[in-house]
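Justification of resources, computational component.

The compute hours requested in this renewal are based largely on the per-chain cost of generating structure records like the one below. Each record pairs the submitted sequence with a full structure-token output. That output is archived, and it is also reused by downstream analysis tasks.
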Amino acid sequence: MHPWHRLPQKWILQRSKGYRWAFGIAAVETEDIRQLSTLPGLSDDSCAVGLLRVEEQQVPIATTTVHRQQYRTDRDSVTPIHEMIRKLESQGVVSKARSPFNSPIWPVRKSSGEWRLTVDYRALNEVTPPLSAAVPDMLELQYELESKAAKWYATIDIANAFFSIPLAAECRAQFAFTWKGIQYTWNRLPQGWKHSPTICHGLIQTALEKAGEVFEKGEKIIQILLKAGFAIKRSKVKGPAQEIQFLGVKWQDGRRQIPTEVINKIIAMSPPTSKKETQAFLGAIGFWRMHIPEYSQIVSPLYLVTRKKNDFHWGPEQQQAFAQIKQEIAHAVALGPVRTGPEVKNVLYSAAGNNGLSWSLWQKVPGETRGRPLGFWSRSYRGSEANYIPTEKEILAAYEGLQAASEVIGTETQLLLAPRLPVLGWMFKGKVPSTHHATDTTWSKWIALITQRARIGNPNRPGILEIITNWPEGANRKWKAAVWSPTRRVAQATEGQGGSSQIAELKAIQLALDIAEREKWPDSISTLYTDSWMVANALWDG
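The structure output for this chain reads:
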């Protein structure tokens, strides 16, 4: 048996490009740790609904009456939704009504198989006055979790939080919906309305801010929320634990990982038979794209069959992409944690390929043979970008990578930029090449960002330093360079792997100069002519 088979708690990734990664999360023991779910006051009722001890909420009212007929719903949802409405009516969450407004019910199946009663308020949302948003960005929360690298975690999930918030009577009519010929409306904040998350988040913040040290212990948080009037499901309270699931992501020591049940669900999916099924599959895997190197390039054949102008055709190219992305999901590595300190090296790898851009951010500290990834990004070319010259594509990849890296590690951190081609020298010249496709405005944008953050020759200051190194994913692209002199009857070639066509151009120049030196050609005939802007700028500092 292979020795790696004795590591069941780790995910071993063997990529076709020749590198093996072994990142994993070890099992933890929590049997002797008192769990928050044992606290009194928690509910075991899956339909539990609280009632906040606050004034009935005055919310924005639509500027125009919206009336939409109920459309056909999923047959499997009819009985559960009927029972849910009956239960909510008995709890005072909804009540029968007569209103000129009406929006269709839009049942949503949860991952557990249960149904969520939501209403399609898209038309109502369009005519609802704005409200200042106060909901935290999910990506920011994830980055914050990565940067903390905590040893212990806990999560608390408020049961039906929106349904705990009472609405003022004059605001209720706009939320009317019809079920089995009877019109109802919400007496509490509904799901699906644009301002519900903002209002709910604000009320939770208000409740928690009443205690000075509330975040030190989960027990205090639970007591405060219960006292405020929220109901909390016992089954949704997790921790303390060294491994927790939050925002759909598995967390430990600040590292984020795809949960095993998510991987199993994706692996079990059958090939799509329609555009709708393809879109559903792409939706299921898209959330995890930061874990997958060159995600956009891999799934591009799947996006082709979802375009409106294209008929659905599932061919060998789609099947190969489908199988490959599932394999990548199964072997995805953990990301993070974001570490800080003078010994931490942040390296951004960027590259431009035939089908799009890709970049990845890594951190390495002394003692690590290979750094840890913080994220992988990729995208296809947009609009005229596909017509850019190779140099422009490489600079665009570096530009996009810098923006992504700044969101993870900030702009005041030392960053080592490792593009496939050197770009900083060209940026500091501030010159736009005579042969190019990107507009002068686009070039100015690239130059401004890269030179603003770059620090050439000053490694102790925050900013960007450029290094030329091999990509950690390994490159399967091969190149070959050759030189031939018809007058002197000299020919020579070399080849390699892990570079681009521009690398081959430079190798050809190197070969020519080596031959000139070996053959002792006169300086007068050792003049270089090239139609490559990249070669000219790489060799000439004038």
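The chain has a mean pLDDT of 77. The first helix runs from residue 78 to 90.
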